[in-house]
Amino acid sequence: MLALDAKAVRVGSNPHTKAEAIRQVGELLVEAGHIDPGYVASMLAREKIANTFLGNGIAIPHGIPKDRELIRKTGVAVLQVPLGVEWNPGEMVHLVVGIAAKSDEHLEILANLTDVLGEPEEAAQLAKTTDAGRIAARLSGSAASAAAAASAPAAVVEELGDGFDVTIDNPHGLHARPATAFVNLAKSFQATVRVRHGDKVADGKSLISLLKLGAEKGAKLRVTADGADAAKALATLKAAIEKGLEDEAQAAADAALPIVDARQTIRYEARTVAAISASPGLAIGPIRQFVRAKIVVEATARDAAAELKKLDRAIESAKRQLEELFDEVWKKSGPAKAGIFKAHAEFLEDPEMLDAARSLIREGRSAGWAWQHVYEERAGILASMKDAVLAARASDLRDAGRRVLKLLAETIEDEPQLPDQPVILVADDLTPSDTARLDPKFALGLCTAGGGPTSHTSIIARSLDIPAVVSAGDSVLNLADGTLAILDGNGGLLVIEPTEADTAQARQALVDHQTQRDAERKACYKPAIMTDGARIEVVANISDVAEAAAAVEAGGEGVGLLRTEFLFLQRDSAPTEDEQFETYAAMTKALNGLPIIIRTLDIGGDKEVPYLQMPAEMNPFLGERGIRLCFARKDLFRTQLRAIFRAAATGPVRIMYPMIATFEELQKAKEITEEVRNSLGADPVEIGMMIEVPSSAVMADVFAPEVDFFSIGTNDLTQYVLAMDRLHPQLAKQADGLHPAVLRMIDQTVRAADAAGKWVGACGGIAGDPLGVVLLSGLGVHELSVSIPSIAAVKAQIRGLSREKTRALAQRALACRTAAEVRALA
Q1: DSSP codes, 235-259
Q2: Class assignment of domain 294-413?
Q3: What pTM does this model have?
Q4: Active site residue 456
Q5: CATH architecture of 271-291+416-513
Q6: 328 CB contacts (<8 Å, ≥6 apart)?
Q7: Catalytic: 344?
Q8: For 382-426, what is each residue's pLDDT tens digit?
Q9: Which one from 94, 175, 197, 344 is the annotated catalytic residue?
Q10: Which residue spans adopt a coiled-coil conformation according to this UniProt entry (predicted)?
Q11: Domain 536-824 maps to which CATH number in 3.40.50.720, 3.40.50.11030, 3.20.20.60, 3.20.20.80?
């Protein structure tokens, strides 16, 4: 039997993140001679394809089966984290049990772990003890605990009547991954489910109960159920078990298939910061903090009493803002995520800070100067501390402090300093205008603390072909300028102070990536035909005439989205009919016979045009935008339609209406369009509509017979389905277009279009996302409209896919519960 050595147990650890905890327990395995250092990266990679959280504060990180050659000998190490580390949202871990298994010797320790899982009090004691030997003895199975385990039943439950017998064929038995799959299936039925192994009976809806069965390969199980849908539950569970219940080796093999992205995955030795991939690619260079807003305050003030009142008012206002944020985030994301705002409020009530600021005010300083001096001084002290947790609080204090400072500011200067030498730009977040002004020669890569993959920043980064990661967390804001880093836009990582080996791998990956890009460019004019003959058209999103020609050169098969707003912005009056016609005609000429979809004016919400004198709206995204604005300003709408119909005589043009929410809106838009066409005596053109709001997706079967095509605007559809502004500083990272709710809307839309014999395109962030390409293809989307730099890569990816495999993966995605589960399919 494998024994856990107390030397392989580290008590009192304090990792700040899950990744850091995995690295630390991996170091223990390395020190004990169980693994090569490279296996740590495999342990981190596994978190993308499996949930290693067991329950009761215990997690069991381990590597991917294909990396077992990196295991020198089977072993286990334990990292105790008394304060806890967040493993998954809302799940805190206190015992991190790292496993390196060449064989099944480690299963004895896992069996002891499941005993601990069933005893919350014992798990809590092991999480707090300072005796490493006690943890080692308990998990190795002391005589007392082994005897107790032997005499204890798996669960206090009874076997039910109807059922089936089955033999477990998984190489490692009913371990965490297949047991989790079983539990998730069982929970989808109302029936009560029981599983018997020998004289032990487990609750089929309890992971802990199932694991305590200790069912190894070859174990014979009896599965029973009772309830209204018992027969269906038994049939489903039997089929799942016979298929292997997401067998670990098969799942890892599937994950290794280049179905999503053929880019090289790098295993880094240095510290990494996990983020969300927003734009693919790699960058190596020094960090440069992007400081956007400079808050200006007066240094001195004459009336101390007035300044003291000003400080008190600002602090109270900031507290109310934090209370509102706490309530909002608590409702949307739970107490774990919202708790940070309570901590920020605590800073604002710190008596030492308040006393220090008030003393400076009484000495003649302004409230703003005094407050800034006090919180910056204390944040600097925190940031310099060796304790990682305390150091991380520096960014929290600065956040809370700036919230008050903005309320005390005389002016806020907002002129960012753009880089003039090659750097990796790090920022809290970037506005679209910030990103658009960047020079790709100097902005090697972008890393933001907040934001999400569907934000305008991400979209513009992809259009500029700049590698980018978002939602990296506030810790990146404390990185010093000049710190060498690798930004991995493929893996969603920022690597801090990489080792020579890391840098060498990254440079080789850049060479490989460039070779791949060259190959993709050479094949860019070939159609995107899947391995089994299905074809998907890949077209471009464009915003000006020059991009029309660039789209053709990049291999685009037309234009799937012309954003006509560019004609209306940054000017003092609306463009004339002739101006618009000349622009559209120039595009059709550049496309040389390839089709172009011209979206009618989509202004409102986040796009404002001063000369249109649109009234301020409380909820602009729910107000007069898109087609609604066109109805309110029929003069603009008719002028644009006339220009489009005139341009249609010069090349294949399609018209597309934005933001259609009701059947009445579509009817009205078509009536006006037909009136304009008749007045010109123009030939009919194909008419389509965007699917951007839930109502249009839900009623796609009603809309489909009335149009020639649908185009799914995945970015807006995501924010309306999830009710999350994709520019919101806290919520943007959750506004993921691969959320199952969004995918189900897309699926419903495609099925309705297919039934009516109409085709469906998709534009937006996920159309160019490697996993998005697979899922949209599998859902039956006929056309993908992507940024120009992505065209060749998307076409190359599609040529390596089969319709059968993409459909299978899409169906698995539709059955997921969260966006994280969907992305884990990659």
Answers
A1: HHHHHHHHHTSS-HHHHHHHHHSTT
A2: mainly alpha
A3: 0.51
A4: yes
A5: 3-Layer(bba) Sandwich (3.50)
A6: none
A7: no
A8: 655 544 444 445 656 777 887 888 888 876 655 556 788 899 999
A9: 175
A10: 301-328
A11: 3.20.20.60
